[in-house]
Amino acid sequence: MSPEILSLIGILVGVAVFIVVSFMGFDIKVVALLSAAVVALFSGLNPYQALTEFFMPGAAGVVSSYFMLFTFSAIFARLIGESGAAASIAFKITRLARNAKNIETQRFLAVLTLPLVNAIITMGGVNVFVVTFIMVGLARPLFKELDIPWWLYTCNSLGSSTFTIGMMPGSPQMQNLIPQDTFGTTPMAAPVLGILCACLTMGLGSCYIMYQVRRTSKKGEGFMPTGEVIDKENLTAPNIEEMPLWKALLPMIVLLIVLNGLEQPAPLALLVAIIVAYLLYDPRKLNIKKMLTDGMTAGLIPLFGLACATGFGKVVSNVSGFTTITDSLAVLGTGAFSIVIIVNVCSGICGSASSGENIALAAFGDRFIASGIPSEQLHRLVAMSSTGLDTLPHSAGIVTALTVSKLTHKQAYINNFVLSVVLPIVMSFVAAALISVGFYF
Fold first, then answer.
1. How do residues 364-412 score in pLDDT, each as one tens digit?
2. 296-334: per-residue pLDDT in tens?
3. Which of 52, 103, 153, 270 is 20 to 30 A distant from 125 in Cα terms?
4. Secondary structure of the chain in HEC code, one letter for each residue
């Protein structure tokens, strides 16, 4: 067996180990190191050398590139959480659920509330990895009150890891920011295409949620037993003293204006939003020391998870088997449909949209540009395609969300699979079809 084929087998085994061991509930940082060592062994590399020469620089690069983005996002999340802004937004939306005429409609609207609030918060600048820390505290009392199966909590992925990070123009999420350097574009790239796909995603995702709510109601499923563990958690109750909607949304609007209107870097836009929120939400009621400390901690946990997933991807991209993969993918050409497949494969290997984007653009960026597809459409297509296979079971985002919500892959991953794997892939092919017939808007 040739070294290249053995290395390719090693990549497949490494990804399988990553998925299975993550599925078993082990910490992603440990899993990433173990999986990277497996890839190195199959490729004839010294595992320690692979970890020090490839894994660590890859992980360190993520920390260096996204430290301010994650920490400012987490501090901003803490601000809108502790001030009651997030709770105010959620309260106004959940009121629709509580006021519905029958229990089944209440349950459907309650579950749909999660992706709606998620969408608002992530579009408002809270990092997709950080948002789950806000949502669990808001969702638990609502699900318990309406006796909704807690495993349906993961339906919130419809609003956090699909259209707001890859499809919506102007999004401050890093998946929408990464293609800028390669294609010379802005976060507003291909606005009509992005909004159209986002609307289709939200519509189809809502139909799936309605199906699951009706199915569980017929079976008589309730908050327990999947809510047993989260019910014992000492979650801090959100401040539900309702504030006017304009006040709750103003810092997020300022962020989007600074990012897209003034075209400033995302960390700077977040910093401006933090200052506006702090001044707007009565500093006397906020414990600034605790807010900064907790915010930094909340930002670093998912950052290090992403860094380790990227480190694994860096090891993979430096073994001979990866060259076999890229050569095979190159045979597909660089048409719109091929780009969808290439970026999804890279994201699937890394278990991360951002890592997959970086690797795909590094290996194929020049070929994408040479395809003749306008740069704005390339930006949108790459960003969308990165959000498909990125949320396989070994994804840093999936592991973080399940850990925080006290759910297991077995209990709740099905919602993530349908809403944040299948649906984004389908939408990416829809976008590719539109681009292929000249839809350049």
1. 888 899 888 999 999 999 999 999 888 887 676 777 788 888 888 888 8
2. 776 777 788 778 888 888 888 888 888 887 777 777 777
3. 153
4. CCHHHHHHHHHHHHHHHHHHHHHCCCCHHHHHHHHHHHHHHHCCCCHHHHHHHHHHHHHHHHHHHHHHHHHHHHHHHHHHHHCCHHHHHHHHHHHHHHCCCCHHHHHHHHHHHHHHHHHHHHHCCCCCCCHHHHHHHHHHHHHHHCCCCHHHHHHHHHHHCCHHHHHCCCCCCHHHHCHHHHHCCCCCCCHHHHHHHHHHHHHHHHHHHHHHHHHHHHHCCCCCCCCHHHHCCCCCCCCCCCCCHHHHHHHHHHHHHHHHHCCCCHHHHHHHHHHHHHHHCCHHHCCHHHHHHHHHHHHHHHHHHHHHHHHHHHHHHCCHHHHHHHHHHHCCCCCHHHHHHHHHHHHHHHCCHHHHHHHHHHHHHHHHHHCCCCHHHHHHHHHHHCCCHHHCCCCHHHHHHHHHHCCCHHHHHHHHHHHHHHHHHHHHHHHHHHHHCCCCC
